[in-house]
């Protein structure tokens, strides 16, 4: 089984950047994905270049937090508040996760294309694509990503979270259809994706992970108040988290 551990949210804050840098240094993660619209994106890139992991930095497409890079989308209350900041409203409603009009799709296209261009200007070459709050798994955003995949050579795209049992039957069907579609957009995806907590729950419930499969685990490195490096998805020390994964 091939396991890829990805740290989301690079560039989000000074603390997150430092935590991700330490996670690389301690070999807890294989790659990270950058939020190019966030205030500490430039600092993140400087850090990656200085510490030698720039070739392990993909892009964390973002439509739900911080300020957009384009102007048009700021005026749409579906995406932004009155001050022009992303507020994630569209991602909280089933209707808009399944349908948006042409005007909104055009705004998404401009914003994501601008984020991809900024990633390109940094000189980064990994071209792994995922997204903040998994918005690229919303159907309208997927449609935009499909269009963008014809303009950019994505090396890999994160699939929809599928490391679990049970759940809504329609959601499971949507995820299967979505993941089958994602695999047609680029040359590389993993077979399974989820958090470490998803993985532990899945295995304890009897889920078998085929030896020839590929698995992506997402983590969000940060520090506890006592300075301990942790993954915010689960209440445990990051060293134990990654140590247990590497033992499998």
Number of DSSP strand runs: 9
Describe the strand arrangement of the main beta sheet, using strand numbers. Answer: 5-4-3-2-1-7-6
Structural class: alpha/beta
Determine the strand fraction and express it as a percent band.
15-25%
Largest sheet: 7 strands, parallel
The portion of residues assigned to helices is: 25-40%
Taking pLDDT < 50 over at least 5 consecutive residues as the criterion, the unreliable ranges are 235-240
Task: Describe this entry's structure for a reader.
The chain has helices spanning 14-25, 41-51, 94-98, 102-121, 139-149, 169-182, 196-204, 238-246; strands spanning 2-10, 31-34, 57-61, 128-131, 156-157, 192-195, 214-219, 221-223, 229-231. It is an alpha/beta fold and 248 residues long. The protein has a 7-stranded parallel β-sheet with strand order 5-4-3-2-1-7-6. The chain has a two-stranded antiparallel ribbon with strand order 8-9. It is globular and about 45 Å long. The chain starts with a strand and ends with a helix. Residues 235-240 have low confidence and may be disordered.
Keywords:
single chain, 248 residues, alpha/beta, two-stranded antiparallel sheet, 8 helices, 37% helix, 16% strand
Question: What is the structure about, briefly put?
Answer:
With about 250 residues, the chain is α/β, with parallel strands linked by helices.
SSE layout and pairing:
Layout: E1 2-10, H1 14-25, E2 31-34, H2 41-51, E3 57-61, H3 94-98, H4 102-121, E4 128-131, H5 139-149, E5 156-157, H6 169-182, E6 192-195, H7 196-204, E7 214-219, E8 221-223, E9 229-231, H8 238-246
Parallel strand pairs: 1-2, 1-7, 2-3, 3-4, 4-5, 6-7
Antiparallel strand pairs: 8-9
């Amino acid at each position: 089984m091939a396991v890829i551990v990805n740290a989301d949210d690079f560039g989000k804050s000074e603390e997150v950047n430092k935590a991700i840098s330490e996670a690389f240094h301690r070999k807890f993660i294989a790659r990270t994905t950058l939020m190019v619209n966030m205030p500490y994106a430039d600092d993140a890139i400087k850090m990656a270049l200085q510490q030698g992991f720039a070739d392990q930095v993909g892009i964390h497409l973002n439509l739900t937090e911080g300020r957009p890079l384009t102007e048009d989308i700021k005026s749409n209350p579906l995406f932004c508040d009155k001050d022009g900041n992303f507020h994630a409203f569209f991602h909280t409603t089933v209707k808009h996760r399944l349908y948006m009009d042409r005007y909104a799709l055009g705004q998404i296209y401009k914003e994501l294309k601008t984020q991809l261009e900024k990633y390109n200007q940094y000189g980064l070459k990994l071209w792994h694509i995922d997204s903040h709050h998994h918005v690229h798994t919303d159907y309208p955003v997927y449609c935009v990503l499909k269009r963008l995949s014809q303009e950019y050579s994505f090396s890999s795209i994160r699939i929809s979270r599928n490391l679990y049992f049970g759940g809504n039957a329609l959601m499971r069907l949507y995820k299967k259809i979505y993941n089958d579609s994602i695999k047609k957009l680029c040359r590389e995806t993993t077979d399974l994706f989820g958090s470490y907590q998803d993985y532990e729950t899945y295995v304890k419930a009897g889920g078998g992970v085929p030896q020839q499969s590929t698995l992506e685990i997402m983590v969000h490195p940060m520090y506890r108040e006592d300075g301990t490096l942790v993954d915010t998805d689960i209440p445990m020390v990051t060293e134990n988290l990654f140590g247990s994964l590497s033992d499998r």
